[in-house]
């Protein structure tokens, strides 16, 4: 079979440029993108299916006057018919091989609808309303759905937002289609076809198009606002301005002279609309493929055993007969600002003969070994972590979308490890990329979020689960120097699970964008916060100089990084101790009311090491109000070294 130039010409391949916008829109909005499949889907639709549809329509109609893309179309031959069959078959086979079955099925349905529209046997185009609805649906909502299937490899979830976008696409085509028929009235009538455009008349077609585009915009607005992407809607409107301007100009010309409803003006309208809309959706692709990172969920958990600070200090006091030590314990406990703490251990309010973890003696000797402490950690850390994770709204539905897992801990280690245990017990995908932040202390959560932020900014559609779990109470030791007085009377157990996404999502959580991070190591505090492993647990260094070091350095650190305390209306500060929080407020001249979430967490939980600052952030975010949109949040935590880790966030 010889294919001549006229046959190729009737495929009107350049006309596919006018039909590209919905595919690009789908590409920009797809939750996941399989790039190889997306490329094949694009080529199949625009170089095979659309040209085959154009060619079949030309073969059946045998147009003698102008048609879309061709002012003087040549007469078709039987070669054109066979070529369209070949292109359709090739498109279907390539779809099955290189894209996916769902896309191939959608493609076949689209081809059948296209043939039913043009063929002499069915000829849907001769029915003004039915023909119009067929084109609006199949070139609108159906094409968007088909494109999503090709781009992402999965069907579009028919939730409220996606129903809005399908309606928006349908009304977009519903507006454009009658306008493309406005110059063909005479030719259609010769063929016995009465189009909707003919029934509406010249001015009626313009008014109808305007109404359809208005409805299209309404549903696009609902779609973007439902997804908390209202700014994207306004970006779209900027690109629509030239389309509206030319539409109004053309309407004015037709109002004055009906002959202006001609082929050339129609093609100008097509070019203006296609260039603007393709440009718009390419910009959306660029925006979408340069993601930010957002907190989608923060959930906390504590063990079942809750103890008042008085009960815990009494346990400590009963471990010694030294009057001085007893007095020091009581004084320090009263100054901590803590009312209660939680522990995985059941011993702290029992008589010594009923102990399960500690030795059944009044003096607690011999103390539990490091081996025993790690056994408790291995048993309890996974359980407590699950408790936090499973509070995430709809976790069972979203867990398969988690791409990365980061675990954080400094109070216990074992292998395979907390990350693998969580993957196994929660039945997470075995392909999740995992990492751990271990033994880095109270500011490790900020370091983990820094890693999650980097992942989300570099990988579109990344979803990172960060889990911080600490069992500080298992390291209680029978020591009475200043370091242990502080650690035994400050620390408790807790866990936090945080979802970090490359797109804003989450229910019941005010949208929070991660804005940046800063770090500082104070080498002159190297020995003031540190610990080492020993046969009986951690050897602690936690001096009273830590608050002074923070107080003297936090303001210079902010100044050095270009941060002004006045720019932040909300503060999430790690409550390492009451004096640390007091001195932090004094150093930055902050009203202590701004640090109430920090004081509240210290009062109700104590210092739980790495999860603590996220307990504070959760309390802060849960109290957010709509008027806080745009406000900035400053988070800070302090760890061994002495190291200061800060994070800036923004309500969006």
From TrEMBL:
It comes from the Bacteria. It is found in: Membrane. The keyword Transcription regulation does not apply. The chain crosses the membrane at residues 6-27, 39-60, 80-113, 129-149, 161-179, 200-223, 229-255, 267-287. It holds the Pfam family UbiA. It is a multi-pass membrane protein. Residues 295-504 form the Chalcone/stilbene synthase N-terminal domain. InterPro entries: Chalcone/stilbene_synt_C (IPR012328), Chalcone/stilbene_synt_N (IPR001099), Polyketide_synthase_type-III (IPR011141), Thiolase-like (IPR016039), UbiA_prenyltransferase (IPR000537). Keywords: Membrane, Transferase, Transmembrane, Transmembrane helix. One of its GO terms (cellular component) is membrane. Residues 521-651 form the Chalcone/stilbene synthase C-terminal domain. SUPFAM superfamilies: Thiolase-like. One of its GO terms (molecular function) is acyltransferase activity, transferring groups other than amino-acyl groups. GO terms for biological process: polyketide biosynthetic process. Belongs to the thiolase-like superfamily. Chalcone/stilbene synthases family. This is Naringenin-chalcone synthase.
């Amino acid at each position: 079979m010889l294919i001549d130039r006229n046959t190729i010409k009737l495929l009107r391949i350049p006309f596919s440029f006018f039909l590209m916008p919905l595919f690009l829109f789908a590409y920009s909005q797809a939750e996941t993108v399989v790039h190889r499949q997306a490329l094949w889907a694009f080529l199949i639709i625009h170089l095979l299916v659309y040209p085959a549809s154009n060619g079949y329509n030309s073969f059946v109609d045998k147009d003698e006057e102008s048609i879309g893309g061709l002012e003087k179309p040549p007469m078709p031959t039987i070669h054109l018919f066979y070529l369209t069959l070949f292109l359709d078959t090739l498109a279907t086979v390539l779809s099955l091989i290189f894209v996916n079955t769902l896309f191939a099925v959608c493609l076949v349905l689209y081809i059948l609808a296209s043939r039913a529209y043009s063929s002499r046997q069915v000829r849907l185009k001769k029915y003004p309303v039915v023909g119009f609805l067929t084109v609006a649906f199949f070139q609108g909502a159906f094409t968007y759905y088909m494109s999503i299937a090709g781009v992402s490899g999965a069907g579009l979830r028919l939730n409220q937002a996606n129903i809005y976008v399908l309606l928006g696409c349908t009304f977009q085509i519903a507006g454009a289609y009658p306008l493309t028929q406005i110059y063909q009235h005479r030719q259609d009538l010769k063929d016995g076809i009465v189009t909707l455009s003919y029934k509406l008349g010249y001015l009626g077609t313009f008014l109808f198009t305007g109404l359809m585009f208005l409805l299209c915009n309404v549903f696009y607005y609902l779609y973007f606002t439902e997804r908390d992407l209202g700014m994207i809607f306004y970006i779209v409107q900027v690109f629509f301005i030239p389309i509206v301007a030319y539409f109004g100009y053309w309407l004015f010309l037709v109002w004055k002279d009906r002959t202006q409803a001609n082929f050339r003006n129609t093609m100008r309208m097509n070019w203006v609309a296609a260039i603007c809309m393709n440009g718009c959706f390419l910009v959306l692709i660029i925006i979408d493929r340069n993601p930010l990172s957002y907190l989608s969920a923060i959930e906390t958990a504590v063990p079942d055993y809750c103890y008042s600070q008085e009960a815990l200090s009494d346990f400590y006091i009963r471990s010694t007969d030294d009057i001085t030590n007893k007095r020091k314990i009581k004084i320090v406990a009263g100054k901590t600002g803590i009312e209660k703490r939680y522990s995985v251990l059941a011993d702290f309010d029992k008589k010594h003969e009923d102990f399960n973890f500690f030795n059944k003696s009044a003096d607690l000797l011999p103390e539990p070994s490091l081996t025993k402490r790690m056994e408790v950690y291995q048993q309890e850390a996974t359980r407590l972590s699950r408790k936090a994770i499973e509070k995430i709204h709809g976790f069972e539905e979203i867990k398969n979308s988690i791409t990365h897992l980061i675990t954080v801990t400094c109070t216990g280690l074992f292998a395979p490890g907390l990350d693998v245990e969580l993957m196994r017990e929660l039945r997470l995908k075995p392909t999740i990329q995992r990492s751990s932040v271990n033994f880095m202390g109270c500011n490790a959560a900020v370091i983990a979020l820094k890693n999650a932020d980097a992942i989300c900014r570099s990988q579109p559609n990344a979803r990172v689960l960060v889990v911080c779990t600490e069992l500080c109470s298992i390291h209680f030791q029978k020591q009475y120097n200043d370091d242990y007085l502080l650690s035994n009377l400050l620390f408790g157990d807790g866990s936090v699970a945080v979802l970090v996404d490359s797109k804003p999502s989450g229910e019941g959580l005010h949208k929070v964008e991660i804005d940046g991070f800063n770090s500082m190591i104070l080498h002159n505090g190297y020995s003031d916060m540190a610990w080492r492993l020993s046969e009986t647990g951690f050897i602690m260094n936690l001096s009273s100089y830590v608050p002074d070091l923070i107080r003297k350095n936090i303001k210079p650190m902010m100044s050095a990084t270009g941060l002004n305390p006045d720019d932040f209306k909300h503060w999430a500060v790690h409550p390492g101790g009451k004096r640390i929080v007091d001195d932090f407020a004094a150093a930055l001249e902050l009203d202590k009311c701004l640090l109430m979430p920090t004081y509240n967490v210290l009062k109700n939980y104590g210092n739980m090491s790495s999860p603590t600052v996220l307990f504070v952030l959760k309390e802060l975010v849960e109290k957010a109000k709509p008027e806080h949109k745009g406000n900035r949040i400053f988070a800070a935590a302090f760890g061994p070294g002495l190291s200061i880790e800060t994070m800036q966030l923004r309500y969006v």
